[in-house]
Amino acid sequence: MATVVYTVGDDISTDVIYPGRYMATVLPTETPQFAFADDAAFNAQLKAHAVSAGSVLVGGKNFGCGSSREQAVSCLNGHELTIVARGFARIFLQNAINLGLRVVVCPTIVAAVGDDLTIAATEVVNETKGQRFPIVPLPQSRQAIIDAGGLIPFTRQRLLVEKGS
Amino acid sequence: MGMTLVEKILARASDRPRVAVGDVVEPRVDLAMSHENAALVINQFLEIYAGTPLPANLWDPHKVAIIFDHRVPAESPKTASNQKKIRAFVAAQRIRRFHDIRGDVGGICHQILPESGYVRPGTVVVGTDSHTTSHGALGAFAFGIGATEMASVWALGTVLNVEVPPTIKIEVRGRFRPHVGPKDLILHLIGQLTAEGANFRVLEYHGETVRAMSTSGRLVLCNMAVEAGATAGAVPADAETTRYLREEAGVTEPTDAVGPDADAAYDRVIQLDVSDLGPQIACPHTVDNVKPIAAVAGTKIDQVVIGSCTNGRLDDLAAAAGILDGRKVAPSTRMLIFPASAKIYQQALDRGYVATFMRAGAVVMNSGCGPCLGVHEGALGDGEVALSTTNRNFKGRMGNPNSEVYLCSPAVAAASAVAGVITDPRTGGN
Ligand code: SF4
Q1: Which of A141-145, B10-14, B167-171, B390-394 has the lowest mean pLDDT?
Q2: Is A51 in contact with A41 (CB distance < 8 Å)?
Q3: What pLDDT sits at residue A165?
């Protein structure tokens, strides 16, 4: 079971997740400190490690819209959050799969901070509210990348095969 | 059934006779663009090769372009150090399509790529920037990717597992009224589609209005396609594309234009008529919160910005100069203008626009992203309101979550700067 630690509405942009003024910080090891930097309370909670790994952030439609900045994914990945959203913007979704951030597309999800969720293969169960919400599977085309552990190992394997070593 | 423009490009780039929506392909990349975020791409690129006996070399340095634009000149030691690291990589890998911080060949990536002749019709362009959609204006399939995906492209020369996207056909007819143009059209369309209405889809622009539009205007339509969530925007190449490539981008070799089939299958068709369209404004804090200007006219503004990869081109500056000539920016308002490239800056100097702007009280800044993404220039104070020709008004976009950004055309921006409040250029600007 995983607890919801944060909820946001529709069209949450990468400017909100990882404000542009921190874009000079690029390394995945350094970005987590700036996750949701403009929400002082949540950011402080993250920085204090008050949020346990596997905790859930619930988003609305079009989560991660806007810029292609990968920091918006690596900053959440660094806290080992799972993102359950009604929908994702394309580049964010792709970046998440490439970096191994756990993302769940759940078009009807309803959950509040503190709710306990069980994320199964085909549905999210909100145990607190006693409700079930179906999951839309991720594009099949990306599954191979998830299975390889992310795009870096996936590309590395491809290169080694192609270059015949 | 025929193919759409993007289907044709993807079929060609993946050596298939045809592709259809949902097919997974691995297209060859013709141009791979990054800006300062190349610092992260380099990191991920080296990661791919870590522990392998393979040398970490680009698949084809000639197809890689790196343009410094987001934070130029560097706003912090951190950025300067990233830029330094990128320069060393550029030199080591012999990347020639590199545009450093310069007053002759510098500028915003989405202007540098077209004006340098790097983008060709029918090609596949990827960039580590969401507004890479811009380059569809020249009949290419151009889309934004993340840094790790780019590292993979640098290694392989292809994009892995691309799902062929459905295409929405946008048919535009009618002639723009004076002081109304491509920016108003795209804002209107985004308002209709919503910020996620074109998610995972391509917007392919057609119709007499688009045919009559300059490449500069088409770049506006494709640039902001991503604000409706689109993977790409695209205008099939035509005589205007050839003219632009020859006359403005210095391309001499022949270009072969790929066009959609007449019986291509579209996700849906949207028809628009611009004959009665007035100036449009995207209100805080989402780009799809679009209203006709009358709904917000009179709103007091602290800062006006003209520039960016959306509206920092010569025709945009001409429109603003026409309105600002002999007038003054209101004392209660600051006006910042940043031409999209050094070349455009030079042209604006030659035509006297820069002098017009300065006499009016505007500050003309160096070419680059400037205030658009709120990193190092032109930040807003708490509670301040900006009116900008850029493409995003998300909370905090201009560097302060406690401020508001309205988006508009250059004509609206200029007329409003004079009045100090949001002003319809058809009535208040003259
Ligand atoms: S001008 Fe703005 S939108 Fe365009 S590339 Fe620069 S930061 Fe991005």
Answers
A1: A141-145
A2: no
A3: 55
CB contact (8 A) between residue B54 and residue A163: yes
Region for B160 from its dihedrals, namely left if φ exceeds 0, alpha if ψ lies in -120 to 50, beta otherwise: beta
Residues B227 and B313 in one domain: no
Residue to probe by mutation, ligand 1, list B67, B110, B183, most atoms within 8 Å of CB: B110
Does the pLDDT at position A140 exceed 80?
A: no
What confidence tens digit (pLDDT) does each residue in A68-88 have?
Answer: 999 999 999 999 999 999 999
pLDDT tens-place string over residues A90-114: 999 999 999 999 999 999 999 999 9
Does the pLDDT of residue A162 top 90, yes or no? no
Closest partner residue to A87 (CB to CB) among B47, B54, B196 is B196
The pLDDT tens digits of the residues spanning B208-236 come to 999 999 999 999 999 999 999 999 999 99
- pLDDT tens track for B322-331: 999 999 999 9
Is any ligand 1 atom within 6 A of the Cβ of residue B108? yes
Domain with B341 in it: what CATH number? 3.30.499.10
Name every chain A residue with its beta carbon within 8 A of the beta carbon of B82.
24, 26
Quote ipTM for the complex: 0.96
Whose tokens are 């009604």? That residue is A86
B388: CB partners within 8 A, 6+ apart: B304, B305, B306, B308, B371, B372, B398, B405, B406, B407, B408, B413
Structural domain ending residue among the three candidates B235, B252, B272: B272
**For chain B, the helix, strand and coil percentages under 3-state DSSP, each to the nearest 5:** 35, 20, 45
Last residue of a domain, one of B242, B272, B302: B272
pLDDT of B147 over the 80 cut: yes
CA distance B370 to B374: 8
- Restricting to B residues 199-258, those with a Cβ less than 8 Å away from any Cβ of A are 199-200, 229, 231
Residue with tokens 């393979």: B54
Q: Is B158 on the interface with A (CB under 8 A)?
A: no
Ligand 1 pocket, B110 CB below 6 A? yes
Residues B37 and B182 occupy one common structural domain: yes
Q: What's the gap in Å between the CA of B12 and the closest CA on chain A? A: 20
Residues B222, B285 within the same domain: no
Domains of chain A by start residue, with CATH:
2-163 (3.20.19.10)
Helix boundaries (H) for chain A: 14-17, 40-47, 71-77, 90-99, 140-148, 151-162
Domain residues for the domain of B147 are: 5-272
Q: Are B236 and B203 in contact (CB under 8 A)?
A: no
Count how many domains chain B has. Answer: 2
